Amino acid sequence: MLESRYFNRLGFSEQEGEALRVPSRENLATIVEAHLQRVTFDNLSQHGLPFTASLDRKKTAQKILDEKRGGFCFELNGLLSELLLELGYPVKRVPAIVHAGSDVGFRGMPTHMILIVTASENEWLVDVGFGEPAIHPLKYELNIEQWTPDGMVSRIIKCADSNVDAILEWKKDETWSPRLKFQWEHPGQDLAAFQNGLDYTLSKTSIFYQKLIVCKINRNEKVSLAGTRLKRTAPRFGLDSKVEIKELGCEEEVKRILEKEFGVLDAAPLDLSKSKTADPEVWTQL
To answer: Range of 271's domain?
Structure first.
């Protein structure tokens, strides 16, 4: 059982954890928000730190819950899906294709996992493994603008050139921009079905391999570390949003930031060699 270890990792007391064992939309939102606040989106395992990413539940639980580390979508959404299933939520694991910017468009294969979770008689799109997802679940319904407490505005629309695909968009600077594409009525898959996506993420062609990224968000602030660039955005959305960027000078300073800002207590051995030679544009979106 994951429940006790997971709730401890997310900072809930035993009493709070007991209340969260009842499936509901409100409890689901509380779990998702705590997850994004406490567990980093990161690729530290590809830049020196131990624990190679895996679809194995036991290994992933050891890394995230016991070692108090973070990870990326296949680890974070994969393990969260196991917790939600234990708690009694119907969950579908759905492959998604990432939009890689206007120059690239949607990638050629699914390299992401989202969760479609049933709670309070509705389906909800849940994602704790995308760097900067909505901080609460999004109602799985087409063509409605959805505001979450972080100020993000999202919607799900049908793909114009496909009868089966949907696109998740967010509104930035009054413009709708695509984020993910996925099959609208997907039946869901076992974790093992995501091996190809995991293999790509771990490959040398992936941006996860090319440069270190660590990101943590809450309602008011996003803090990210891309290579040696520390970026703080607060508030995260709106006309008064401010961005502070600091270039860190050495590996020891990066390790101090990993501990202070992200709770990574032992960042040795850390390897910044790939990050220093990577394209400066990699991970600038975070």
So the answer is: 211-277
